[in-house]
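Inverse folding, one chain.
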């Protein structure tokens, strides 16, 4: 793919190996793969084999970003669990530091290498008249966990050109917005705008995202609809104003993952972008 913007692909379930993903990435003219730690083949032990990752990427001239496990729960009340998740992030940052060299060779040095992160809503208790979210009830404990997390990430990242980018999913909770705002005050954190999730959630996160647009440095690009709520559609198959979203991504010099879930949808999305770039 031509043009200034950097487009990449997600880890696809149809591809059982890293090599298959790399072959597809290169065939479609994409620049990077977002390695997804929800997949068993991209757990820490595999990612820490960075020499193998680098050799595989260099054969086709691509690089990697990383998607942290969606179950990551920094504020879990079980301290053993929250410590394990922090340790996961620490070791993943160490991996990413070793992969920056690929970004430098095959990507855009003006864009930090990203580790994409979801906010975990935590559990809720259902009462006769309402649901009570435990992180909202115990907000002080929740924020203490995120203060510790920010401090540790700043220490682990140091002066490396890395950023942990927080992705919207089904609508940020009010307590999450406060935690995110605290994280965004650090140069080690930024935002991912997942435009498909945003559409399926009836754009409830747009005011918060736009209020923090200067922190946007990563996009998940896929089409979607509000009614019924659907996302991860091929570009052109939904109701999103894709031109406006891509224009903002370009203005922010943001890296874009064409985050469909099938090879066919990814191929269609690449063709859509190439047509719009002509």
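Residues assigned per position:
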């Amino acid at each position: 793919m031509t043009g200034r913007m950097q487009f990449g692909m997600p880890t696809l379930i149809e591809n059982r190996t890293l090599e298959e993903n790399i072959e597809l990435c290169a065939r479609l003219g994409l620049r990077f793969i977002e390695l997804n730690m929800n997949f068993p083949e991209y757990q820490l032990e595999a990612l820490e084999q960075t020499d193998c990752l680098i050799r595989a990427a260099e054969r086709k001239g691509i690089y990697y970003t990383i998607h942290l496990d969606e179950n990551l729960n920094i504020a879990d009340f079980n301290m053993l669990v929250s410590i394990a998740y922090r340790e996961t992030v620490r070791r993943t940052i160490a991996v990413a530091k070793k992969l920056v060299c690929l970004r430098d060779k095959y990507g855009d040095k003006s864009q930090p290498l990203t580790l994409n992160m979801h906010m975990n809503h935590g559990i809720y208790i259902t009462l006769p008249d309402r649901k009570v979210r435990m992180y909202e009830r115990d907000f002080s404990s929740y924020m203490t966990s995120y203060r510790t997390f920010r401090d540790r990430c700043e220490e682990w990242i140091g002066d490396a050109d890395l950023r942990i980018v927080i992705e919207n999913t089904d609508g940020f909770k009010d307590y999450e917005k406060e935690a995110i705002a605290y994280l965004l005050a650090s140069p080690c954190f930024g935002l991912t705008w997942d435009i498909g999730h945003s559409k399926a959630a009836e754009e409830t996160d747009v005011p918060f995202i736009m209020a923090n647009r200067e922190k946007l440095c990563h996009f998940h690009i896929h089409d979607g609809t509000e009614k019924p709520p659907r996302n991860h559609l091929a570009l052109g198959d939904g109701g999103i104003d894709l031109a406006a979203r891509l224009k903002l991504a370009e203005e922010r010099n943001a890296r874009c993952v064409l985050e469909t879930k099938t090879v066919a949808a990814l191929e269609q999305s690449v063709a859509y972008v190439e047509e719009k770039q002509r």
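The first strand starts at residue 7 and ends at 10. Residues 159 and 188 are 9 Å apart (CA to CA).
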